[in-house]
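Backbone-to-sequence.
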């Protein structure tokens, strides 16, 4: 079971790193998933991730206070608005826009209600 958690953690780190350069793929949720997986499988990898110069601070903020940095909140809002705007330009069907709007609205509500 430990190998499964470690494998999932490594996949999550890979997806999170891809999210750094791909604007549609989020980084932080994958790094949070990786931290959780590593906590169950590898204290060494968990420590590496939570003390990482770039990925560590958001992970520690979340673990300690359930907090999301203001810049990350702004980035999430801009990304959601951009994706919705592109969907409008591409004339995505109304039902799909409604589903997209509900999903993004729920995600945005969650993000904005977290402490900074």
């Amino acid at each position: 079971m430990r190998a499964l958690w470690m494998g999932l953690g490594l996949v999550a780190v890979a997806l999170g790193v891809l999210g750094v350069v791909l604007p549609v793929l989020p980084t932080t949720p994958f790094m949070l998933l990786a931290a959780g997986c590593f906590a169950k499988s590898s204290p060494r990898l968990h420590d590496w991730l939570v003390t990482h110069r770039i990925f560590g601070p958001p992970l520690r903020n979340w673990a300690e206070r359930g907090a999301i940095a203001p810049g990350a909140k702004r980035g999430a809002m801009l990304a959601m608005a951009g994706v919705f705007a592109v969907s409008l330009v591409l004339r995505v069907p109304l039902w799909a826009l409604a589903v997209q709007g509900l999903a993004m609205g729920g995600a945005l509500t969650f993000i904005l209600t977290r402490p900074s």
